[in-house]
Design goal:
232 residues; alpha/beta; Rossmann fold; 2 domains; 6-stranded mixed sheet; 4-stranded antiparallel sheet; globular; binds adenosine-5'-triphosphate; branched-chain amino acid transmembrane transporter activity; ATP-binding; ATP hydrolysis activity
């Protein structure tokens, strides 16, 4: 579904990624882990057309997408939840969700209903300003907005960042359910062990390059990976 080959990318003249390869199959759940500054978010931003492309290829459903801008990429079936500033704080919850469908002529009511069924608290608080909600609820708003177009691939950048420990489990459970319902997931996570335990496949990125790739379970069991990247 998503195939990244030999990707070189960065910001302006600054190259961050070198020869990065990555695959996400239909309905798969793929995680990228690695140290701070490894370029994990840059991979995700590159897929969404937000970095400077320097070489290689990014294809989605067998179509090259790297010259496209984010709006065109959304049309292709990819939605992105950035780590920061992922909601409009002064808009209500419902207005935020409606923004997720801005590329359409009208808001698809069935999608709004599907998002409310997935995140009932958002229906209860639909008229509340999103900026006044808790961290976990704001993350639900951001995910709900990304799901408004029923994407084939959902890009999640550190969905557990800033959440209280008891909410982290809940967030990962919700992501599992989104994936169980057929949406492929590409997720960057600091919470590496938890993410690898849940995903189909993991990529360890270091200094902008692929370091290890395997099933989540095998990466977790690999002594070198554990020593170098997972705190032993
Ligand atoms: N907009 C930008 N302009 C210039 N450099 C950037 C920009 N965004 C990120 N970088 C740099 O790119 C490198 C990789 O950053 P990136 O956010 O992709 O890493 P990461 O692995 O996701 O890190 P973290 O786990 O800390 O979020 C870092 O050196 C960072 O300073």
């Amino acid at each position: 579904m998503l195939t990244v080959r030999d990707l070189d990318a960065g910001y302006g003249d600054l190259q961050i990624l070198t020869d990065v390869d990555l695959d996400v199959g239909e309905g798969e759940y793929v995680t990228i882990v690695g140290p701070n500054g490894a370029g994990k978010s840059t991979v995700m931003k590159s897929v969404f057309g937000l970095t400077t492309y320097m070489g290689g290829s990014i294809t989605f459903q067998d179509e090259e997408i790297h010259p496209l801008d984010p709006e065109d990429i959304i049309h292709k079936g990819i939605s992105y939840v950035p780590q920061n500033e992922n909601i409009f704080g002064t808009l209500t919850v419902e207005e935020n969700l409606e923004m997720g469908a801005y590329i359409l002529d009208s808001v698809p009511e069935d999608r709004l209903e599907a998002v409310y069924e997935r995140f009932p608290v958002l229906r209860e608080r639909k008229d509340q300003k999103a900026g006044t909600m808790s961290g976990g609820q704001r993350q639900m708003v951001a995910m709900g907005r990304a799901l408004m177009l029923d994407p084939d691939l959902l890009l999640l950048d550190e969905p557990s960042a800033g959440l209280a420990p008891d909410l982290v489990q809940d967030m990962f459970d919700r992501i599992d359910r989104i994936n169980d319902d057929g949406t492929a997931i590409l997720m960057v996570e600091q919470n590496a062990k938890t993410a690898l335990r849940r995903c189909d496949r993991g990529y360890v990125l270091a200094q902008g390059e692929n370091s290890y790739t395997d099933t989540g379970d095998r990466l977790l069991a690999d002594d070198e990976v554990r020593q170098q990247f997972l705190g032993g």
